[in-house]
Amino acid sequence: MTYLARRLGLFGVTLLLITLVTFLITNVLPGDVATMILGTRSNPETLAGLREKLGLNQPLIVQYGHWIGHALSGDLGVSLVFRTPIAVLLGQKIAASAMLVVMSLVMALLFAVPLGVWGAVHRDRWQDSVGSSIALAGISLPDFFWGIVLILFVARGLGWLPASGYASPLDSPRLALSYAALPSVTLALSLMAHLTRMTRSAMLEVLGQDFIRVCRAKGLAEGTVILRHALRNAISPVLTVAGLQLGYLFGSIIVVESLFNFTGMGWLTYQALLNRDMPLVQASVLVIAALVMLTNLAIDVVYTLLDPRVRLT
């Protein structure tokens, strides 16, 4: 409980700092909310009245206090572009992006862990070289490159999956998965490369420890030694990297969702940036930061279930 209380306190302080930095950056940029609402050709008296009504003439610290106070009560304001309460917009888009993130994380783990184990077991052989080459290619090339390749060959060339669009899982689960497949694979490729390298390194370290030699000396089957004893002890750092990479995934969805016209959080944030919808940008950053930190906290707690040696206190 002490550990959780300390982490939750750190979570609150970090989130507060993120909101402060985001608010300051978005408010020092040229232009303001009143101009975005009324347009650049509006009457100066009307602009001044709207600025007064919205509190834009107050000091930034006062504006920040009002904004964070409303945000804590669940009021994130109204989008300047979509003319809709931001909380409603984010509620609609978070589910779409969460589906992408979960699918890409599952895909990455399903391929990265076997590749990493395979490379560690066959260290310095051709199998290891193949796994390392795949990981290097995934790390070296950016997400938009893989997205364009998948669109050209899988969607346009082979016609197996749609190139762009979004469908709600509530309306048609099968159609929703078909639209989410290519964006998820695009996100998973780079993540898989990082996790493959981490799995290989962790497995090599565990395979060199004394208890592995004892297991083999007892006559245990090699598969049992690798999967039950070595992998179980090597999986914790892999999950650590996976948790840290969630921040990367939420950052990458802005590019990937825009590329595939997948209308999730990333697409919404890009539209907000493109149209200078600063209230929506601030709220999007707040929600994404909170999701990343909560996920990392959950992964830390799960460690106790995977490795009894971990003690949160």
Give the SSE layout.
Blueprint: H1 2-28, H2 33-38, H3 44-54, H4 60-72, H5 86-121, H6 126-140, H7 143-157, H8 173-207, H9 210-217, H10 222-260, H11 265-274, H12 278-306
Helix pairs in contact: 1-12, 5-6, 5-8, 5-10, 6-8, 7-8, 7-10, 8-10, 10-11, 10-12, 11-12
Main attributes?
313 residues, mainly alpha, MetI-like fold, 78% helix
In a nutshell, what does this entry contain?
This protein has 313 residues and is mainly α. Helix content is 78%, strand content 0%.
Commentary on this structure:
This protein has 12 helices and no strands. α1 (2-28) packs antiparallel against α12 (278-306). Helix content is 78%, strand content 0%. 31% of the residues are buried. It has helices spanning 2-28, 33-38, 44-54, 60-72, 86-121, 126-140, 143-157, 173-207, 210-217, 222-260, 265-274, 278-306. It has 2 domains: 2-72, no CATH class; 87-306, MetI-like (MetI-like fold), CATH 1.10.3720.10. The mean pLDDT is 78.
The assigned structural class equals: mainly alpha
**Strand residues, percent:** under 5%
Largest sheet: none
Any guess at the CATH architecture of the largest domain? Orthogonal Bundle
Compressed to H and E, one letter per element, the order equals HHHHHHHHHHHH
CATH C-level name of the largest domain: Mainly Alpha
CATH superfamily of the largest domain: MetI-like
| Unreliable stretches covering 5 or more consecutive residues | none
CATH topology of the largest domain: MetI-like fold
Please tell me the total number of domains: 2
Mean pLDDT: 78
Instruction: Give the end-to-end Cα distance, rounded to a whole number of Å.
Output: 8 Å
Shape descriptor: globular
Helicity, in percent?
over 70%
Number of strands: 0
For the CA atoms, what is the radius of gyration? 24 Å
* SS element count, helices: 12
